[in-house]
Specification:
11 helices, 11% strand, rod-shaped
Length: 417
């Protein structure tokens, strides 16, 4: 049974900027959302307190004491909204920058808990409950992703304040006693929750990093495989000896031509090395292979410069597909082929027409209206090539429809004795 690879047990992240970047970004968004919530809550409490103080004579006078913590909470959260906007988060910051953001978030949590504690102490003296601090404690411990050291100090201060406040009472209220015990009990519980949130974030970061690495590796392997497949397809369509397209490559180019908008002009030029079999027997196959390679190089170079295509169809036979060229340009292309090959000064003592390497060629030009006509043009060009060979080789014939556009009669040079 196959098993999936396990992720590494520990991935170093202590000095990884990406870890602190994600941590700071998460806490930045949460701090902004929480500040927006507490801003509206504190604003509502401030307005309600002011309204009741001035318009309700029966409203207890001590409620004006709440203005100070409510006002501080409103102002501090208003400043957080101005300075901690997630849109201002620097995505390309340094490691120190992200660590500073983590400390700023910790200061905000401490300040929020201190304000909530002060409100709860006032609540106890006048209304005999401490709900504000307990709610803020639960929200901060479960909402933020922070290390325990940022929670321990304000929680210890809060517990001490609760205990001292309890012993200052002449007759402790049962409700306060319950809430004090609840706060003290929730302190280690919420520390565990905060620790769990932080460890869960670490685990998620490790998994994400592992998945990113595996995804990158998979993409790299996929790209290598695609490159290998592309190279394999290229090699399968390339003649091993001459390094130009083979018959398969020819059919691929032909298929591409069939996708063109019809009609269009096409010339099929078939070229054959004269007396190549006897050349091989006379000079040996090594020289024969050299000749094929040089001829192919010339044809491919001319094809690339004229937006045409050249391929070796087998043996000593080559083909060129030349789209969108006038008859006189086809003749120029043929003459370039002969001229460039003659520059190699390739001898052929076994030839019956010349002591130099010669060629027979036939070309058919016309307008392609249907894809089947490409095969028909090939057949007609091959027939013209056969006519040249039958007439004595070393010639060229170009036709369009039934009209001969150019005919270079077979030239038979008298060989030197």
């Amino acid at each position: 049974m196959q098993t999936t690879p396990k992720e590494p047990s520990s991935i170093p992240f202590e000095n990884d900027p990406n870890f602190y970047k994600q941590l700071a970004q998460q806490n930045f968004k949460r701090m902004y959302a929480l500040a927006k919530f507490f801003l509206w809550v504190s604003l509502g409490l401030v307005l309600a307190t002011v309204w009741c103080h001035f318009f309700f004579k029966s409203y207890p006078h001590y409620h004006s004491v709440y203005i100070i913590p409510y006002g501080l909470m409103f102002l501090s959260n208003f400043m957080v909204l101005l300075l901690a906007n997630p849109k201002k988060f620097n995505q390309n910051g340094s490691l120190d920058y992200y660590k500073q953001l983590e400390e700023i978030t910790a200061y905000y949590i401490c300040w929020l808990l201190i304000l909530s504690l002060s409100i709860s102490l006032i609540d106890f003296h006048y209304q005999h409950h401490t709900v504000a601090y307990i709610m803020s404690l639960v929200i901060c411990a479960s909402f933020f992703i922070m290390r325990l050291r940022y929670f321990i100090a304000p929680l210890i201060v809060a517990v001490i304040a609760y205990i001292l406040n309890y012993f200052t009472l002449d007759e402790p209220y049962i409700r306060y006693t319950f809430e004090m015990h609840l706060a003290i009990f929730l302190t280690p519980v919420l520390l565990v929750v905060a620790h769990f949130n932080y460890q869960n974030f670490i685990t998620s970061f490790q998994q994400e990093k592992y998945l990113c690495r595996e995804t990158t590796r998979s993409r790299q392997l996929a790209n290598e495989l695609a490159a290998a497949n592309t190279e394999l397809q290229r090699l399968s369509a390339t003649d091993e000896l001459t390094k130009i397209a083979n018959r398969r490559g020819f059919h691929q180019y032909k298929a591409a031509l069939e996708e063109r908008v019809h009609p269009y002009t096409l010339t099929v030029l078939m070229l054959d090395i004269d007396y190549f079999k006897v050349y091989n027997d006379y000079y040996g196959h090594a020289y024969g292979d050299m000749v094929l390679a040089r001829v192919a190089t010339v044809l491919n170079h001319i094809a690339l410069s004229t937006n045409s295509f050249a391929a070796r169809m087998g043996g000593e036979e080559f083909i060129m597909l030349i789209p969108d060229q006038r008859p006189e340009e086809i003749v120029i292309i043929y003459k370039r082929v002969i001229r460039d090959i003659q520059q190699f000064n390739l001898s052929n003592a076994a030839s019956k027409v010349s002591d130099q390497l010669t060629f027979s060629a036939g070309a058919y030009r016309g307008e392609i209206k249907t894809n089947d006509e490409i095969e028909e043009f090939m057949h007609k060009a091959d027939t013209l090539l056969y006519d040249i060979k039958k007439a004595g080789r070393n010639g060229f014939k170009l036709m369009e429809d039934e009209e001969v556009l150019y005919h270079l009669q077979p030239i038979i040079k008298h060989k030197r004795p």
